[in-house]
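Q: Can someone sanity-check these two? First one:
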Amino acid sequence: MKSFQRIVIAAVAALIVLGLAWELWLAPLRPGGSMLALKVVPLALALPGLVRGRVRTFQWWSMAILLYLCEGLVRATSDRGTSATLGAIETALAGVAFLGILAFVRSARRRP
């Protein structure tokens, strides 16, 4: 497994954990959790393809991960307290995943 692939897998796994913890326990929109926890389902569905190193999955996620980046930016700048901090963490993780995806696809294209 390549190092860029490991970085992407770690960032996506961290986004799954962060999304669940955020929306169920740390700072849910409603007490007791919110349906926004379902935002991790696409990440969980993509994880097997990322682990297998499928370039098509990485290409697809190069665009989809930007939705998580945007959500993190919006929540980091519009929310207050814990939710704003979690939004900043989500932004950082999504940014790392995006850069890792680009590096992985670029290195995969160089291989004959």
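And here is the second, same format, sequence then tokens:
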Amino acid sequence: MGTVLRSQGRDGTVKLRLRERDVPDLGGKTVHLKRAGEFENRQVESLRLDRNAPFLKLKGIDTLAQADALAGCEIYAAEADFRPLVEGRFYEFELVGSRVVTRTGADVGEVAAILRAGGPDLLVVRRGDREVYVPFTEAICVKVDREAREVVIDPPDGLLELNEI
């Protein structure tokens, strides 16, 4: 879901950097904090947006010191806690790990990450020990099958060779 950036105020609230653009409805639900490689479950008191910044309050985190200790922790939520999106929109977790193939069925690789760089999002596709960036646009990513965890692409000539790193 995101990362804890810092504490906010003195009541244990923390500011988040979300991976997803849509904030899930987590009131009263459980999230999973990853600290030092271990997961810790915490119930959500509130998750709110203030000036487009997300703030999270967890039960049992009630002081500035407790909130400060969460800085850098990864926050995970259950897939079922995210609202369904309109057709053509996807959560990052629905894409990462998906196979990428061309229209002709040629294997390209696996989505390792999503890069948001100001223009269209880029799929970071792992091809063996290399990565290639594929613009996540309708013209190139012609089909996303959530259930099969597959992205079908129609790359322009040279795209897959051009941006290999």
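A (reply): Looked at the second one. The longest helix spans residues 64-68. The radius of gyration is 18 Å.
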